[in-house]
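in:
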């Protein structure tokens, strides 16, 4: 959630954490963009009237980075013109202040349901002739199914969704195995090694080691996702 007013961020946090969501905060558009480039988020709640980068500008920049990320504009600007402008600039929904917490949660749930729906569509990577089907948890290369374990699939899917984005070992451990996992961090390296061997058997090698940092998914094309 992006809002320059700390009391508003606290109010949003109360409503949404009570509804079961994990929340990150940004006090302005610049901080939000930095966070979005560094982490994976499922949705953005965006204020319009902020110092520095406005919500309008932030929305445009976010769309350039994450074309499919749901954006809910939350603002005191109530005119039809503002609402039309916000939706035209890429927002998926527009809610005015003051608002009812129940409506806020309902809007968030609706946007996330629609977003999750797009996640079930096959993900095609033309340069590798690879298809990833998240709903069935299937991967094929050159039309040939690739036998992966559940963990190997989860790692591949996480990396492939954010090509060129480096994930640290600690981040992979947290996202794939969960915060409660008490195993060794070398578990990540072991699963990456096995996954790479299976991919190389299919003559593809998209997972790169970023020395001293972690791993990333590399596609040598300008239009990897189609």
């Amino acid at each position: 959630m992006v809002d320059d007013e700390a009391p508003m961020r606290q109010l949003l946090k109360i409503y949404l954490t009570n509804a079961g969501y994990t929340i990150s905060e940004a006090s302005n558009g610049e901080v939000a963009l930095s966070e979005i480039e560094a982490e994976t988020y499922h949705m953005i709640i965006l204020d319009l009237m902020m110092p520095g980068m406005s919500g309008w500008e932030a929305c445009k920049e976010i769309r350039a980075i994450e074309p499919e990320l749901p954006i809910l504009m939350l603002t005191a600007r109530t005119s039809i013109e503002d609402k039309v402008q916000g939706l035209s600039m890429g927002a998926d929904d527009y809610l005015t202040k003051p608002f009812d917490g129940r409506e806020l949660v309902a809007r968030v749930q609706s946007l996330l349901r629609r977003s999750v729906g797009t996640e079930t569509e096959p993900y095609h990577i033309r340069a590798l002739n690879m298809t990833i089907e998240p709903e069935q948890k299937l991967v094929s290369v050159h039309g040939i199914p690739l036998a992966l374990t559940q963990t190997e699939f989860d790692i591949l899917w996480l990396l492939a969704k954010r090509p060129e984005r480096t994930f640290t070992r600690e981040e992979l451990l947290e996202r794939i195995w969960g915060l409660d996992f008490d195993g060794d961090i070398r578990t990540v390296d072991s699963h990456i090694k096995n996954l790479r061997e299976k991919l190389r058997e299919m003559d593809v090698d998209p997972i790169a080691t970023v020395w001293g940092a972690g791993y990333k998914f590399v596609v040598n094309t300008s239009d990897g996702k189609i």
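note: The longest strand covers residues 71-75.
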